Dolichyl-diphosphooligosaccharide--protein glycosyltransferase subunit DAD1 (Perilla frutescens var. hirtella), 116 residues
Amino acid sequence: MGRSSTTKDAQALFQSLRSAYVATPNNLKIIDLYILFALFTAVIQVGYMAVVGSFPFNSFLSGVLSCVGTAVLAVSLRIQVNKDNKEFKDLPPERAFADFVLCNLVLHLVIMNFLG
């Protein structure tokens, strides 16, 4: 009895999440896909390291930190671009994107320096 109610609750939760996500603007959906791509790339690199090995360990760390750092910066961009967020209502989306690009440039310069 408890199992079927749990299943119904989970289905209702997923249905409400899906209906709420349908109303999300397309630019936020694109940023979400970019975040998922960056995290998926990091998972692939960790899987590759587990199978093949991590001989150039700095290269492995650089790749994973680059993916995770880019995903974190994209989450910050998503928060700033979201119109429902009241904290950043005065911030134009162009400024948020310029901050994202500049921070990505600094991140990747640090990553390139870490490679050696």
User: Anything to note?
Assistant: The two ends are 60 Å apart (CA to CA). The mean pLDDT is 91.
